[in-house]
User: Fold this.
Amino acid sequence: PAGRVHPDVRRKGIGRQLLECFEAAARARNCAKLTLEVLKNNPARRLYQRFGFNADTDNPEQTNFFWEKKL
Assistant:
């Protein structure tokens, strides 16, 4: 699934709720990990880190990254 929070309703816990739902759905399907494709300037990167995701690299030349969380 894909998810995005409209700028008008950010910082209200909706992103966290979406991540929790995605993780629950992945666990129910016995998935081994969650993967996000994240743009370098995405303001939700801190949320992803707090939720346990790690970036595949921190190369400053890249404009997007794949973040993973093992389940």
